[in-house]
Amino acid sequence: MDLLSTSAETLDAAIATAPSSPGIIGRSSFVTNSHHVAGLIHGDSATALKTLPNDTFNVAITSPPYFWVRDYGYDGQLGHEESVETYINKLMEVFDEVKRTLHPEGMFFLNIGDTYYSGNGQPHGSDPKCSSRNFFRTKMRPVDASGWDIPKKSMIGIPWKVAFAMQERGWTLRSAIIWNRCNAFVEPTARDRPHRQYEHVFMFTKSRFYSFDRSKLVEEDVWNIPIERSRRAKHNAAFPSELVRRCIEVGSPPGGHVLDPFVGSGTSIFTAIANDRNVVGVDMSPDYVDYIQSALEADRHKDISWENLLQRVKTPSAAWELWEGNKKNFRKPGKPKTE
Ligand SMILES: C[S@@+](CC[C@H](N)C(=O)[O-])C[C@H]1O[C@@H](n2cnc3c(N)ncnc32)[C@H](O)[C@@H]1O
């Protein structure tokens, strides 16, 4: 279906009757005070992304739920699968859609962390600093069950398993950025290993030739960015806005288009707006979606139709042609700019 030639009402009806519709609970769209657009879809990412047009977003950035690390408190959340393979397959369903909706020269920054295989045969300890981890105490997770083919207490290596699965599906892995979370909390139960201070941010591209504004890169592949402790919407796994800002700036022109399929407390939305980009975010948590929606209303951004929002993100930024990151404008060392 061509979403752009469809009226908002028809589109709503189409989504309501589409086979994949049970995944979408609601959506809202705003034109911001700086005349950009922000869209929010409440629902399951794999389904919600299917309603977005092809070849659109300059940059996607996200942090999906990690494997059995938190409980977001609702059915249908990712991260609670029976096996690592199923978890990765579920992520791939979402990321295939990210790839389809990404501009042919677009890039995808994926922040993902690891999980330990405990194999203890009983629930794990609790983390007093983080209520969303306390389900460990009573719930026996698959990573607590014995019988895996790796030694107990092993790191599973999920980030790289995901990266390899992405390569198999045609993504080009261009960088495995280390996000040094300089002020990371200590891990109270880790008495016999270093506490984890870094996470990966993989930089994938849809094709080998893509846009990238090197002039905006403030560090090479180790990014020293503290965690923000503000706990927006009580979300304790939120991105720091600086991390999002960097990805947005290297991956999109001013006025360009940003996507976050697991937007959580809305960092990508608020950072995109603050940096003059258009943005669409998806999340399945009613609490986070309510929080983002109220914050956008409180900032007095105005409602627009979903159809208008789609038209805006389908139109390239006015800055696209001249943007230094546009691959056409890359300067080869020692050579003038190519056509
Ligand atoms: C690590 S958090 C993202 C945090 C976000 N980067 C921020 O800055 O707040 C992962 C998010 O994925 C959401 N989520 C889990 N399963 C989902 C699904 N099937 N579809 C959409 N969102 C989902 C959770 O509600 C949670 O907000």
UniProtKB/TrEMBL annotation:
Gene3D superfamilies documented for this protein: Vaccinia Virus protein VP39
GO BP: DNA restriction-modification system; methylation
Chain ranges of the DNA methylase N-4/N-6 domain: 58-293
InterPro entries reported for this sequence: DNA_methylase_N4/N6, MeTrfase_CN4_CS, RM_Methyltransferase, SAM-dependent_MTases_sf
Heme in keyword set: no
PROSITE patterns given in the database record: N4_MTASE
Keywords on record: DNA-binding, Methyltransferase, Restriction system, S-adenosyl-L-methionine, Transferase
Domain of life: Bacteria
Pfam families with a match to the protein in the record: N6_N4_Mtase
Ranges that cross the membrane: none
Keyword set includes DNA damage: no
Reactions performed catalytically: a 2'-deoxycytidine in DNA + S-adenosyl-L-methionine = an N(4)-methyl-2'-deoxycytidine in DNA + S-adenosyl-L-homocysteine + H(+)
GO molecular function, one term: site-specific DNA-methyltransferase (cytosine-N4-specific) activity
Protein EC: 2.1.1.-
Protein name: Methyltransferase
Naturally occurring in which organism (per UniProt): Pseudomonas borbori
